[in-house]
Amino acid sequence: MIRIENIKKSFSDKSVLKGISATFEQGKTNLIIGASGTGKSVLLKNIVGLIEPDEGQVYYNERPFLRASRDEKTEIRREIGMLFQGGALFDSKTVEENIKFPLDVLTNYGEEEKLDRVNFCLKRVDLENVNSKKPSEISGGMKKRVGIARAIVNNSKYLFCDEPNSGLDPQTAILIDNLIKEITEEFNITTIVVTHDMNSVMEIGDNIIFLHEGLKLWEGSSEDIIDTEVKELQSFMFANKLVRAVKKLSAEK
Amino acid sequence: MKILGQFMIFMGSLFVNKESFKTYIDLFFEEAVKIGVKSVVIVAIISLFMGAVTTVQTAYNLVSPLIPDFVISQVVREMTLLELAPTVTAIVFAGKVGSNIAGELGTMRITEQIDALEVMGINAASYLVLPKLLASIIMYPLLVVFAMFLSLVGGYLAGTMTGVITPEDYIYGIRFEYNSFNITFALIKSVVFGYIIAAISSFKGFFTVGGALEVGQSSTSAVTNSCIGILLADYLLAQLFLG
Protein backbone atom coordinates (compact mmCIF):
# COMPACT_ATOMS: atom_id res chain seq x y z
CA MET A 1 0.00 0.00 0.00
CA ILE A 2 1.12 3.54 -0.75
CA ARG A 3 -0.22 6.53 1.13
CA ILE A 4 0.44 10.14 0.18
CA GLU A 5 -0.23 13.04 2.51
CA ASN A 6 -0.72 16.67 1.53
CA ILE A 7 1.72 16.70 -1.41
CA LYS A 8 2.44 20.24 -2.58
CA LYS A 9 4.75 21.25 -5.40
CA SER A 10 5.44 24.56 -7.13
CA PHE A 11 7.74 25.44 -10.01
CA SER A 12 8.85 29.08 -9.75
CA ASP A 13 5.59 30.90 -8.99
CA LYS A 14 3.33 28.24 -10.46
CA SER A 15 1.66 25.91 -7.98
CA VAL A 16 1.29 22.52 -9.72
CA LEU A 17 0.15 20.32 -6.82
CA LYS A 18 -1.92 22.00 -4.11
CA GLY A 19 -2.00 19.47 -1.29
CA ILE A 20 -2.96 16.01 -2.51
CA SER A 21 -3.67 13.11 -0.17
CA ALA A 22 -4.68 9.60 -1.22
CA THR A 23 -4.27 5.92 -0.46
CA PHE A 24 -3.34 3.39 -3.15
CA GLU A 25 -4.32 -0.13 -2.18
CA GLN A 26 -2.25 -3.26 -2.72
CA GLY A 27 -3.47 -5.67 -5.41
CA LYS A 28 -5.50 -2.93 -7.10
CA THR A 29 -4.90 -0.88 -10.21
CA ASN A 30 -4.94 2.72 -9.01
CA LEU A 31 -5.38 5.37 -11.68
CA ILE A 32 -4.45 9.04 -11.60
CA ILE A 33 -6.40 10.79 -14.34
CA GLY A 34 -6.84 14.33 -15.55
CA ALA A 35 -6.33 16.58 -18.53
CA SER A 36 -2.83 17.48 -19.76
CA GLY A 37 -1.02 19.89 -17.46
CA THR A 38 -3.00 19.06 -14.32
CA GLY A 39 0.02 17.63 -12.51
CA LYS A 40 -0.49 13.87 -12.96
CA SER A 41 3.08 13.07 -14.02
CA VAL A 42 4.49 15.54 -11.47
CA LEU A 43 2.55 13.73 -8.74
CA LEU A 44 3.88 10.36 -9.93
CA LYS A 45 7.45 11.71 -9.97
CA ASN A 46 6.94 13.05 -6.46
CA ILE A 47 5.76 9.63 -5.28
CA VAL A 48 8.77 7.78 -6.74
CA GLY A 49 11.19 10.48 -5.60
CA LEU A 50 12.32 11.81 -8.97
CA ILE A 51 11.05 15.22 -7.85
CA GLU A 52 11.18 16.38 -4.24
CA PRO A 53 7.83 17.93 -3.15
CA ASP A 54 7.77 21.23 -1.23
CA GLU A 55 5.54 19.71 1.44
CA GLY A 56 3.94 16.39 2.29
CA GLN A 57 4.97 12.79 2.82
CA VAL A 58 4.79 9.50 0.92
CA TYR A 59 4.50 6.23 2.84
CA TYR A 60 5.35 2.84 1.30
CA ASN A 61 3.64 0.30 3.57
CA GLU A 62 3.76 2.99 6.27
CA ARG A 63 7.52 3.54 5.78
CA PRO A 64 8.11 7.29 5.21
CA PHE A 65 9.95 7.82 1.92
CA LEU A 66 10.54 11.54 1.49
CA ARG A 67 13.33 12.99 3.58
CA ALA A 68 14.31 9.44 4.61
CA SER A 69 18.01 8.58 4.81
CA ARG A 70 19.78 7.66 1.56
CA ASP A 71 19.95 3.97 2.56
CA GLU A 72 16.26 3.82 3.51
CA LYS A 73 15.31 5.47 0.21
CA THR A 74 17.50 3.05 -1.76
CA GLU A 75 15.91 0.10 0.05
CA ILE A 76 12.40 1.28 -0.90
CA ARG A 77 13.42 2.19 -4.45
CA ARG A 78 14.71 -1.32 -5.02
CA GLU A 79 11.14 -2.53 -4.49
CA ILE A 80 9.85 -0.19 -7.20
CA GLY A 81 9.34 -0.99 -10.88
CA MET A 82 8.39 1.73 -13.31
CA LEU A 83 7.14 1.77 -16.88
CA PHE A 84 8.01 5.09 -18.49
CA GLN A 85 6.05 6.85 -21.21
CA GLY A 86 8.60 6.06 -23.93
CA GLY A 87 9.70 2.77 -22.37
CA ALA A 88 13.09 4.24 -21.27
CA LEU A 89 14.86 1.09 -22.42
CA PHE A 90 18.65 1.31 -22.60
CA ASP A 91 19.47 1.78 -26.30
CA SER A 92 22.87 0.11 -26.12
CA LYS A 93 21.51 -3.10 -24.58
CA THR A 94 19.45 -5.91 -26.06
CA VAL A 95 15.95 -6.76 -24.81
CA GLU A 96 17.40 -9.54 -22.65
CA GLU A 97 20.12 -7.29 -21.22
CA ASN A 98 17.55 -4.57 -20.51
CA ILE A 99 15.35 -6.92 -18.49
CA LYS A 100 18.34 -8.56 -16.79
CA PHE A 101 19.83 -5.17 -15.86
CA PRO A 102 18.16 -4.75 -12.41
CA LEU A 103 19.23 -8.30 -11.52
CA ASP A 104 22.81 -7.66 -12.68
CA VAL A 105 23.20 -4.51 -10.62
CA LEU A 106 20.98 -5.14 -7.63
CA THR A 107 21.22 -8.88 -6.90
CA ASN A 108 23.79 -11.64 -6.49
CA TYR A 109 21.89 -14.21 -8.59
CA GLY A 110 23.88 -16.56 -10.79
CA GLU A 111 23.74 -16.09 -14.57
CA GLU A 112 21.46 -19.10 -15.11
CA GLU A 113 19.04 -17.95 -12.43
CA LYS A 114 18.95 -14.47 -13.97
CA LEU A 115 18.22 -15.82 -17.44
CA ASP A 116 15.45 -18.05 -16.09
CA ARG A 117 13.86 -15.03 -14.44
CA VAL A 118 14.23 -12.94 -17.62
CA ASN A 119 12.62 -15.64 -19.74
CA PHE A 120 9.80 -16.05 -17.21
CA CYS A 121 9.08 -12.30 -17.34
CA LEU A 122 9.28 -12.22 -21.14
CA LYS A 123 6.81 -15.08 -21.33
CA ARG A 124 4.56 -13.34 -18.80
CA VAL A 125 4.30 -10.27 -21.05
CA ASP A 126 3.71 -12.51 -24.09
CA LEU A 127 7.03 -11.85 -25.80
CA GLU A 128 9.20 -14.57 -27.26
CA ASN A 129 12.23 -14.73 -29.56
CA VAL A 130 13.13 -11.08 -29.01
CA ASN A 131 15.95 -11.64 -26.50
CA SER A 132 18.72 -10.53 -28.84
CA LYS A 133 16.90 -7.60 -30.45
CA LYS A 134 17.81 -4.00 -29.68
CA PRO A 135 15.04 -1.56 -28.57
CA SER A 136 15.29 0.19 -31.95
CA GLU A 137 14.31 -3.09 -33.66
CA ILE A 138 10.99 -3.63 -31.86
CA SER A 139 7.59 -1.88 -32.05
CA GLY A 140 6.18 0.64 -29.56
CA GLY A 141 3.85 -1.95 -28.01
CA MET A 142 6.71 -4.42 -27.62
CA LYS A 143 8.83 -1.72 -25.97
CA LYS A 144 6.08 -1.20 -23.39
CA ARG A 145 5.95 -4.95 -22.74
CA VAL A 146 9.72 -5.09 -22.30
CA GLY A 147 9.40 -2.07 -19.96
CA ILE A 148 6.81 -3.97 -17.89
CA ALA A 149 9.01 -7.09 -17.85
CA ARG A 150 11.96 -5.00 -16.62
CA ALA A 151 9.74 -3.38 -13.98
CA ILE A 152 8.66 -6.71 -12.47
CA VAL A 153 11.85 -8.76 -12.95
CA ASN A 154 13.17 -7.94 -9.47
CA ASN A 155 9.89 -9.00 -7.78
CA SER A 156 8.83 -5.38 -7.35
CA LYS A 157 6.19 -4.62 -4.75
CA TYR A 158 5.16 -1.36 -6.41
CA LEU A 159 4.53 -0.77 -10.11
CA PHE A 160 4.25 2.73 -11.59
CA CYS A 161 3.15 3.35 -15.15
CA ASP A 162 3.37 6.78 -16.76
CA GLU A 163 0.97 7.02 -19.71
CA PRO A 164 1.38 3.35 -20.68
CA ASN A 165 -0.89 3.76 -23.73
CA SER A 166 0.67 6.83 -25.29
CA GLY A 167 1.52 6.30 -28.94
CA LEU A 168 -0.22 2.91 -29.15
CA ASP A 169 -3.13 1.84 -31.34
CA PRO A 170 -6.40 1.13 -29.41
CA GLN A 171 -6.04 -2.66 -29.68
CA THR A 172 -2.47 -2.73 -28.35
CA ALA A 173 -3.43 -0.19 -25.69
CA ILE A 174 -6.13 -2.54 -24.35
CA LEU A 175 -3.63 -5.43 -24.32
CA ILE A 176 -1.17 -3.35 -22.30
CA ASP A 177 -3.94 -2.23 -19.91
CA ASN A 178 -5.06 -5.80 -19.34
CA LEU A 179 -1.48 -6.94 -18.85
CA ILE A 180 -0.96 -4.30 -16.14
CA LYS A 181 -4.16 -5.36 -14.37
CA GLU A 182 -3.33 -9.07 -14.60
CA ILE A 183 0.17 -8.54 -13.24
CA THR A 184 -1.14 -6.39 -10.40
CA GLU A 185 -3.58 -9.08 -9.30
CA GLU A 186 -1.28 -12.05 -9.96
CA PHE A 187 1.68 -10.68 -7.99
CA ASN A 188 -0.48 -8.75 -5.49
CA ILE A 189 1.45 -5.52 -6.03
CA THR A 190 0.45 -1.87 -5.62
CA THR A 191 0.06 -0.32 -9.04
CA ILE A 192 -0.35 3.35 -9.89
CA VAL A 193 -1.09 4.29 -13.49
CA VAL A 194 -1.10 7.85 -14.80
CA THR A 195 -3.35 8.18 -17.82
CA HIS A 196 -5.81 10.37 -19.66
CA ASP A 197 -7.13 7.50 -21.73
CA MET A 198 -10.83 6.88 -20.93
CA ASN A 199 -10.60 3.32 -22.25
CA SER A 200 -8.03 2.56 -19.54
CA VAL A 201 -10.27 4.21 -16.95
CA MET A 202 -13.21 1.99 -17.85
CA GLU A 203 -11.13 -1.18 -18.37
CA ILE A 204 -8.78 -1.33 -15.40
CA GLY A 205 -9.62 1.43 -12.91
CA ASP A 206 -10.14 -0.21 -9.51
CA ASN A 207 -9.51 3.07 -7.75
CA ILE A 208 -9.43 6.35 -9.67
CA ILE A 209 -8.24 9.78 -8.61
CA PHE A 210 -9.18 12.77 -10.76
CA LEU A 211 -6.85 15.76 -10.69
CA HIS A 212 -7.83 19.23 -11.84
CA GLU A 213 -5.57 22.27 -11.59
CA GLY A 214 -3.40 20.58 -8.96
CA LEU A 215 -6.28 19.48 -6.74
CA LYS A 216 -7.91 16.09 -6.18
CA LEU A 217 -11.52 16.69 -7.20
CA TRP A 218 -12.88 13.17 -7.22
CA GLU A 219 -12.03 9.62 -6.12
CA GLY A 220 -13.90 6.40 -6.85
CA SER A 221 -14.08 3.32 -9.05
CA SER A 222 -14.77 2.87 -12.79
CA GLU A 223 -18.34 1.87 -11.89
CA ASP A 224 -19.04 5.15 -10.08
CA ILE A 225 -17.32 7.49 -12.48
CA ILE A 226 -19.98 7.44 -15.18
CA ASP A 227 -22.54 8.89 -12.74
CA THR A 228 -20.29 11.59 -11.34
CA GLU A 229 -21.75 14.99 -10.51
CA VAL A 230 -18.35 16.76 -10.65
CA LYS A 231 -18.56 19.11 -13.62
CA GLU A 232 -14.83 19.17 -14.36
CA LEU A 233 -14.73 15.36 -14.41
CA GLN A 234 -17.81 15.22 -16.60
CA SER A 235 -16.29 17.56 -19.16
CA PHE A 236 -13.03 15.56 -19.06
CA MET A 237 -14.81 12.23 -19.55
CA PHE A 238 -17.43 13.25 -22.05
CA ALA A 239 -15.00 15.06 -24.32
CA ASN A 240 -14.79 11.61 -25.92
CA LYS A 241 -17.68 10.94 -28.31
CA LEU A 242 -17.62 7.21 -27.58
CA VAL A 243 -17.97 7.74 -23.84
CA ARG A 244 -20.85 10.16 -24.48
CA ALA A 245 -22.59 7.42 -26.48
CA VAL A 246 -22.03 4.88 -23.68
CA LYS A 247 -23.48 7.33 -21.16
CA LYS A 248 -26.53 7.88 -23.38
CA LEU A 249 -27.09 4.15 -23.80
CA SER A 250 -26.72 3.54 -20.09
CA ALA A 251 -29.27 6.29 -19.36
CA GLU A 252 -31.72 4.78 -21.86
CA LYS A 253 -31.43 1.37 -20.22
CA MET B 1 29.41 30.59 -9.43
CA LYS B 2 26.10 28.71 -9.31
CA ILE B 3 27.24 26.44 -12.13
CA LEU B 4 30.59 25.87 -10.43
CA GLY B 5 28.76 24.90 -7.24
CA GLN B 6 26.47 22.58 -9.18
CA PHE B 7 29.54 21.03 -10.84
CA MET B 8 31.21 20.42 -7.46
CA ILE B 9 28.05 18.79 -6.06
CA PHE B 10 27.84 16.65 -9.20
CA MET B 11 31.46 15.52 -8.74
CA GLY B 12 30.77 14.73 -5.08
CA SER B 13 27.70 12.68 -6.00
CA LEU B 14 29.88 10.28 -8.02
CA PHE B 15 31.35 8.87 -4.83
CA VAL B 16 28.22 8.22 -2.74
CA ASN B 17 25.78 5.31 -2.86
CA LYS B 18 28.00 3.34 -5.23
CA GLU B 19 27.29 -0.09 -6.71
CA SER B 20 29.53 -3.16 -6.31
CA PHE B 21 33.21 -2.95 -7.28
CA LYS B 22 32.71 -5.62 -9.96
CA THR B 23 30.02 -3.49 -11.65
CA TYR B 24 32.48 -0.61 -11.95
CA ILE B 25 35.29 -2.85 -13.21
CA ASP B 26 33.06 -4.15 -16.04
CA LEU B 27 31.88 -0.64 -16.90
CA PHE B 28 35.44 0.73 -16.75
CA PHE B 29 36.68 -1.74 -19.37
CA GLU B 30 33.68 -1.00 -21.59
CA GLU B 31 34.41 2.73 -21.38
CA ALA B 32 38.16 2.23 -21.80
CA VAL B 33 37.47 0.57 -25.15
CA LYS B 34 34.97 3.25 -26.20
CA ILE B 35 37.08 6.19 -25.05
CA GLY B 36 40.62 4.91 -25.59
CA VAL B 37 40.86 2.08 -28.09
CA LYS B 38 38.36 3.63 -30.49
CA SER B 39 40.36 6.88 -30.50
CA VAL B 40 43.60 5.21 -31.58
CA VAL B 41 43.10 5.70 -35.33
CA ILE B 42 42.30 9.42 -35.18
CA VAL B 43 45.15 10.03 -32.71
CA ALA B 44 47.55 8.10 -34.99
CA ILE B 45 46.60 10.10 -38.10
CA ILE B 46 46.85 13.45 -36.30
CA SER B 47 50.15 12.61 -34.61
CA LEU B 48 51.87 11.44 -37.78
CA PHE B 49 50.92 14.60 -39.65
CA MET B 50 51.64 16.81 -36.63
CA GLY B 51 55.24 15.53 -36.49
CA ALA B 52 55.68 15.69 -40.28
CA VAL B 53 54.43 19.28 -40.55
CA THR B 54 56.47 20.44 -37.53
CA THR B 55 59.65 18.98 -39.08
CA VAL B 56 59.10 20.56 -42.48
CA GLN B 57 58.16 23.97 -41.05
CA THR B 58 61.03 24.01 -38.54
CA ALA B 59 63.47 23.19 -41.36
CA TYR B 60 61.93 25.98 -43.44
CA ASN B 61 62.59 28.50 -40.64
CA LEU B 62 66.12 27.35 -39.72
CA VAL B 63 67.98 28.65 -42.76
CA SER B 64 71.19 29.84 -41.07
CA PRO B 65 74.28 27.73 -41.95
CA LEU B 66 75.42 28.31 -38.34
CA ILE B 67 72.58 26.18 -36.97
CA PRO B 68 73.20 22.43 -37.31
CA ASP B 69 70.48 20.24 -38.89
CA PHE B 70 69.94 18.13 -35.76
CA VAL B 71 68.34 21.21 -34.12
CA ILE B 72 65.33 20.52 -36.36
CA SER B 73 64.53 17.22 -34.65
CA GLN B 74 65.42 18.67 -31.25
CA VAL B 75 62.78 21.37 -31.82
CA VAL B 76 60.30 18.75 -33.04
CA ARG B 77 60.94 16.68 -29.91
CA GLU B 78 60.46 19.60 -27.51
CA MET B 79 57.31 20.81 -29.26
CA THR B 80 55.89 17.31 -29.43
CA LEU B 81 56.57 16.35 -25.82
CA LEU B 82 55.69 19.64 -24.19
CA GLU B 83 52.75 20.87 -26.21
CA LEU B 84 51.65 19.14 -29.38
CA ALA B 85 51.10 15.58 -28.13
CA PRO B 86 49.29 16.41 -24.86
CA THR B 87 47.45 19.61 -25.85
CA VAL B 88 46.60 19.37 -29.56
CA THR B 89 45.57 15.75 -29.08
CA ALA B 90 43.40 16.88 -26.14
CA ILE B 91 41.54 19.31 -28.39
CA VAL B 92 40.84 16.50 -30.87
CA PHE B 93 39.97 14.14 -27.99
CA ALA B 94 37.51 16.72 -26.64
CA GLY B 95 35.86 16.88 -30.06
CA LYS B 96 35.54 13.13 -30.42
CA VAL B 97 35.08 11.79 -26.90
CA GLY B 98 33.59 14.89 -25.23
CA SER B 99 30.79 15.25 -27.76
CA ASN B 100 30.13 11.52 -27.57
CA ILE B 101 29.85 11.54 -23.76
CA ALA B 102 27.58 14.61 -23.70
CA GLY B 103 25.42 13.26 -26.54
CA GLU B 104 25.06 9.84 -24.90
CA LEU B 105 24.17 11.20 -21.46
CA GLY B 106 21.94 13.93 -22.92
CA THR B 107 19.97 11.37 -24.93
CA MET B 108 19.67 9.13 -21.87
CA ARG B 109 18.35 12.10 -19.90
CA ILE B 110 15.67 13.18 -22.39
CA THR B 111 14.50 9.60 -23.00
CA GLU B 112 14.13 9.05 -19.23
CA GLN B 113 16.81 6.33 -19.12
CA ILE B 114 18.58 8.23 -16.30
CA ASP B 115 15.26 8.49 -14.42
CA ALA B 116 14.83 4.72 -14.89
CA LEU B 117 18.18 4.14 -13.16
CA GLU B 118 17.29 6.50 -10.30
CA VAL B 119 13.91 4.80 -9.77
CA MET B 120 15.70 1.43 -9.49
CA GLY B 121 17.71 2.89 -6.61
CA ILE B 122 20.92 3.22 -8.63
CA ASN B 123 23.00 6.39 -8.29
CA ALA B 124 22.86 7.28 -12.01
CA ALA B 125 25.64 9.88 -11.80
CA SER B 126 28.03 7.42 -10.21
CA TYR B 127 26.98 4.48 -12.37
CA LEU B 128 27.22 6.34 -15.67
CA VAL B 129 29.89 8.97 -15.10
CA LEU B 130 32.50 7.49 -12.75
CA PRO B 131 33.62 4.75 -15.22
CA LYS B 132 33.87 7.35 -18.01
CA LEU B 133 35.93 9.64 -15.81
CA LEU B 134 38.34 6.88 -14.75
CA ALA B 135 38.63 5.54 -18.30
CA SER B 136 39.43 9.00 -19.63
CA ILE B 137 42.01 9.71 -16.89
CA ILE B 138 43.78 6.39 -17.54
CA MET B 139 43.39 6.03 -21.31
CA TYR B 140 44.21 9.59 -22.34
CA PRO B 141 47.82 9.54 -21.01
CA LEU B 142 48.34 6.25 -22.88
CA LEU B 143 47.07 7.89 -26.05
CA VAL B 144 49.44 10.81 -25.45
CA VAL B 145 52.44 8.47 -25.16
CA PHE B 146 51.31 6.83 -28.41
CA ALA B 147 50.90 10.29 -30.00
CA MET B 148 54.40 11.34 -28.90
CA PHE B 149 55.95 8.28 -30.50
CA LEU B 150 54.01 8.61 -33.76
CA SER B 151 54.66 12.34 -34.00
CA LEU B 152 58.41 11.72 -33.82
CA VAL B 153 58.04 8.93 -36.39
CA GLY B 154 56.05 11.29 -38.64
CA GLY B 155 58.81 13.90 -38.33
CA TYR B 156 61.46 11.32 -39.17
CA LEU B 157 59.61 10.12 -42.27
CA ALA B 158 58.86 13.64 -43.56
CA GLY B 159 62.37 14.91 -42.79
CA THR B 160 64.28 12.05 -44.33
CA MET B 161 62.00 11.54 -47.34
CA THR B 162 62.10 15.23 -48.31
CA GLY B 163 65.85 15.41 -47.61
CA VAL B 164 65.70 18.28 -45.10
CA ILE B 165 67.56 16.18 -42.52
CA THR B 166 69.52 12.93 -42.58
CA PRO B 167 68.36 9.96 -40.48
CA GLU B 168 71.53 10.21 -38.36
CA ASP B 169 71.01 13.92 -37.61
CA TYR B 170 67.33 13.32 -36.80
CA ILE B 171 68.13 10.57 -34.27
CA TYR B 172 70.99 12.62 -32.81
CA GLY B 173 68.71 15.65 -32.38
CA ILE B 174 66.01 13.56 -30.74
CA ARG B 175 68.50 12.34 -28.12
CA PHE B 176 70.43 15.62 -27.70
CA GLU B 177 70.10 17.17 -24.22
CA TYR B 178 67.03 15.09 -23.48
CA ASN B 179 65.25 16.04 -20.25
CA SER B 180 63.04 13.25 -18.92
CA PHE B 181 60.97 15.71 -16.84
CA ASN B 182 59.30 16.80 -20.08
CA ILE B 183 57.67 13.38 -20.31
CA THR B 184 56.59 13.55 -16.67
CA PHE B 185 55.16 17.02 -17.27
CA ALA B 186 53.32 15.85 -20.39
CA LEU B 187 51.81 12.93 -18.46
CA ILE B 188 50.68 15.23 -15.62
CA LYS B 189 49.03 17.47 -18.22
CA SER B 190 47.36 14.53 -19.93
CA VAL B 191 45.84 13.24 -16.66
CA VAL B 192 44.43 16.73 -15.99
CA PHE B 193 43.15 17.07 -19.58
CA GLY B 194 41.57 13.60 -19.46
CA TYR B 195 39.72 14.62 -16.29
CA ILE B 196 38.62 18.00 -17.69
CA ILE B 197 37.19 16.50 -20.88
CA ALA B 198 35.26 13.68 -19.21
CA ALA B 199 34.05 15.77 -16.26
CA ILE B 200 32.84 18.78 -18.26
CA SER B 201 31.23 16.67 -20.98
CA SER B 202 29.47 14.43 -18.45
CA PHE B 203 28.22 17.47 -16.54
CA LYS B 204 26.85 19.07 -19.70
CA GLY B 205 25.20 15.84 -20.89
CA PHE B 206 23.83 14.75 -17.52
CA PHE B 207 21.90 17.97 -16.96
CA THR B 208 20.45 18.31 -20.45
CA VAL B 209 16.88 19.60 -20.35
CA GLY B 210 14.54 19.50 -23.35
CA GLY B 211 14.74 17.47 -26.53
CA ALA B 212 16.96 16.56 -29.48
CA LEU B 213 17.91 20.19 -30.12
CA GLU B 214 19.19 20.59 -26.56
CA VAL B 215 21.22 17.35 -26.82
CA GLY B 216 23.05 18.90 -29.80
CA GLN B 217 23.58 22.10 -27.83
CA SER B 218 24.95 20.13 -24.87
CA SER B 219 27.44 18.35 -27.15
CA THR B 220 28.62 21.63 -28.67
CA SER B 221 28.84 23.25 -25.27
CA ALA B 222 30.77 20.23 -23.90
CA VAL B 223 33.41 20.55 -26.63
CA THR B 224 33.82 24.34 -26.41
CA ASN B 225 33.95 24.35 -22.59
CA SER B 226 36.40 21.44 -22.57
CA CYS B 227 38.68 23.26 -25.03
CA ILE B 228 38.64 26.42 -22.90
CA GLY B 229 39.31 24.31 -19.79
CA ILE B 230 42.20 22.54 -21.51
CA LEU B 231 43.87 25.78 -22.63
CA LEU B 232 43.41 27.37 -19.21
CA ALA B 233 44.81 24.32 -17.43
CA ASP B 234 47.66 24.16 -19.97
CA TYR B 235 48.74 27.69 -19.07
CA LEU B 236 48.34 27.17 -15.31
CA LEU B 237 50.32 23.90 -15.33
CA ALA B 238 53.09 25.45 -17.45
CA GLN B 239 53.31 28.34 -14.99
CA LEU B 240 53.27 25.98 -12.03
CA PHE B 241 55.86 23.45 -13.26
CA LEU B 242 58.00 25.42 -15.71
CA GLY B 243 57.48 29.05 -14.71
Quick gist of this model?
Chain A has 253 residues and is of the alpha/beta class. Helix content of chain A is 41%, strand content 24%. In chain A, the strands form two sheets. Chain A has a six-stranded mixed beta sheet, sandwiched between helices. In chain A, strands 2-1-4-5 form a four-stranded antiparallel beta sheet, with helices on one face.
Descriptive overview:
Chain A has 253 residues and is of the alpha/beta class. Chain A is built from 10 helices and 10 strands. Helices cover 41% and strands 24% of the residues of chain A. Chain A has a 6-stranded mixed sheet with strand order 6-7-8-3-9-10, sandwiched between helices. In chain A, strands 2-1-4-5 form a 4-stranded antiparallel sheet, with helices on one face. In chain A, helix 3 (95-106) packs across helix 4 (111-124), helix 4 crosses helix 5 (140-152) and helix 6 packs parallel to helix 7. The longest helix of chain A has 18 residues, at 170-187. Chain A is globular. Chain B is mainly alpha-helical and 243 residues long. Chain B contains 9 helices and no strands. The mean pLDDT of chain B is 94. The A-B interface holds A 48-50, 70, 73-78, 80, 82, 84-86, 88-91, 102, 104-106, 154, 160 and B 16-17, 19, 23, 107-108, 111-113, 115-116, 118-122, 127.
